[in-house]
Amino acid sequence: MEGIKSRSQEEHAQLMFAMRISLALGVVMLVFKGAGAWYSESVAVMSDAAESVVHIVAVGFAYFSLKLSFKPADETHPYGHAKIAFFSSGVEGALITAAALFVSFEAVKDLIREPRISRPDVGLWFTGVVVVLTGVVGLYLLKTGKKQRSIVLEANGQHVLADCYTSLGVIIGLVLTWVTGWKYWDPICAGAVGLNMAWVGLHLMSRSVHGLMDRVEPKVKLELEQILDKETRLHEMEFHKLRVRDLGDSLWAEVHLLFPEGMLLRDAHALATEIEQAVAEACLGDVHLTTHLESIEDHDAVHSSHHVEG
User: Fold this and answer.
1) pLDDT at 177
2) Dihedral (C-alpha) 268, 269, 272, 276: value to the nearest 10 degrees?
3) Which of 2-11, 122-131, 189-198 has the lowest mean pLDDT?
């Protein structure tokens, strides 16, 4: 038996629209950053432009992953296809980390040799436009991803905001170079940018591993336990063996409900259905709850005689 809340077509459309905005932003960022790097000869701006290439590749993969996650469960994927979201997050994190290594390498090269930056003012204006665009779009993606419980969109929003912070770091370097005339500010800020990118990339990869290994946040399980405790007490029942899996865009929970021995199966089934619906309505996001019915009085004896854990 299951209590299920599934995404509507409108929610699907909102997620895909948000992802298309992110893809369009990646192209615009690459144009502006590329132009800024060309005119300013700044290693920081060039490194920022390289991150935009990563952004476009990552969003392309995330777009494919999001579409695949909408496919319903089938015979070979009984839990659906939403787990691709964690894999997508890991790929995006790996690409960001690779870009961070490239940025750091270029920064070290410019620190060893004399920086060749020539027009910091030009790079400043191009990068300023990028900061505004990435800040607005990044917050929109992150807000939409959390609201729709989409790890793909959340990861992409974090990526875009990381790009915004990266560009802010570039601007600081350009301003300091422009004002002081000391060109080494450019590679120093580029190195700081690389460290920030690496932190974001490693965070996304860590989240991906946790998701693929079915790690569930303790507060999520606690919320379900509190709801089940309230509902079972209301019907003078008990529960145990609560297990929760995070599928990326939804939760799949399993629980054993213990009923009084004399209760008819049809009545126990009706109460279990009520509890499943109550859990689905009380939780934020999509919840799939499967219940297993047992008798309180002979529960231990039955499982002991069959050597089965219940």
Assistant:
1) 80
2) -170
3) 2-11
CATH topology identical between 2-212 and 218-306: no
The mean pLDDT value for 261-281 works out to 85
For the chain, give every domain's residue range: 2-212, 218-306
List the beta strands (DSSP E) in the chain: 2-4, 238-246, 250-259, 286-295
CATH entry 1.25.40.10 includes domain 2-212: no
- Segment 107-126 shows an average pLDDT of 74
Task: Answer whether 154's CB lies under 8 Å from 64's CB.
Answer: no
Burial bucket for residue 45 (CB in 10 Å: 0-12, 13-18, 19+): buried
CA 87-21-148 angle, 5° bins: 55
Backbone angles phi, psi at 245, to 5 degrees: -120, 135
What integer best gives the mean pLDDT of the chain?
79
Q: How many Å apart are CA 59 and CA 122, to the nearest integer?
A: 28
CB-neighbour burial class of residue 264 (10 A; exposed 0-12, middle 13-18, buried 19+): exposed
The residue type of 152 is V
pTM of the complete model: 0.70
CA-CA distance, 244 to 232, in Å (whole number)? 18
Residue 110 and residue 43 in contact, taking contact as beta carbons nearer than 8 Å? yes
Fold of 218-306: Alpha-Beta Plaits (3.30.70)
- Do β-strands 2-4 and 286-295 pair in parallel, antiparallel, or remain unpaired? antiparallel
Residues 196, 61: Cα–Cα separation, whole Å: 22
